[in-house]
Design goal:
Distance between the termini: 73 Å
CATH superfamily of the largest domain: Hypothetical protein af1432
Shape: globular
Order of helices and strands: HEEEHEHEEHHHHHHHHHHH
Structural class: alpha+beta
Strand order of the largest sheet: 3-2-1-6-5-4
Number of domains: 2
Strand content: 5-15%
Number of helices: 14
Mean pLDDT: 85
CATH topology of the largest domain: Hypothetical protein af1432
CATH class of the largest domain: Mainly Alpha
Amino acid sequence: MFEHEDLLAPLDASLPLGRRLEALHARIRRDHPFVDRVAVASFEPKTSMLRTFLSSGGDLPLVHYEASLDNAPSLREILTTGRPRVVNDLELFASGPHEHTQAIRRQGYGSSYTRPIRLNDQIWGFLFFNSYETGPFTPPVLDSLDVYGHLVSFLVTSEILAVRTLAAAVRTAHEMVHLRDPETGGHLDRMAEFSRIIARDLAAEGKQAFDDEYIERIYLYAPLHDLGKIGIPDRVLLKAGKLTPAETETMRTHSRKGVEMIDHMIENFGLRHFGSLDVLRNIAEYHHEAIDGTGYPAGLKGEAVPIEARIIAVADVFDALTSRRPYKSPWSNDEAFAMLRRLTGTQLDRDCVLALVRNRERVKEIQDRFAVAMG
């Protein structure tokens, strides 16, 4: 009675999203052994940027890669029409000048089927089925892959939507409790983007073995770093002048409060199955630790500070320096970068600082997009 094995059982397990995609790809290959790669790229309407996110099967032709949708006209057509794209011979794009086109060609793929991934009636990304063969994507095959495609889309979007819901709940709580000034939203957007820049650069430079899924987690979790400030009294949190020693200690409790609140929210939102929850907890609890051990709440030192917390710390400090506050004028980027360099080895991680400095142009693009008032 119990001989049948459910090959899709891993989809119900508490496994990283990439592992679940691999299990689904294995099942797809039982029906269609020529499907050599299944990959997901994310798309952000705000920035019109495509980014590698997940991939299963064979070598990875593209990792830690991003490009403007303007450099992918056939994908833009998917965005415009909402319809999938079938290319049974990738030689069609042989003369394409862009890196992603040439990388797929160098890998030797002969054909592809590309579907949009929707989230809340908007296209969130693209799903790729690639084959080394030419001509395999016939109408019956496409009908079958559409079923798998919707399953992949559900796996990805359900997880992304839950995290975004969590982040939206945090922002709403901030606004309801403290009537935040309009700058707060921009700060969260910018520092999340800066965090992703740092993580991608660390991976590209070989400093950290981050995959694209982990980098996306950093980006999604970054806005939750100061969640615990919701639990800090207004008389301390909104005080215009210098805090007393007692008030400073009260303010410092926000990191531990943040972890407690995250655990409550994970329980209330039913997110215990999520992978990378330790990454989220580390961001909330340890983003005020210092490399020399003088930070809080645990006084961790050097590499004992989780790397995701070190990344967030640099992004947070840089945006604070370059943003206008009631008590300060914004610093220029050059001034802020110089300060980050002075803080390396004591407060901030050197590799994380250099990663941000190496991406000055991207930093300025993000500031322009999210309207930071520069000095």
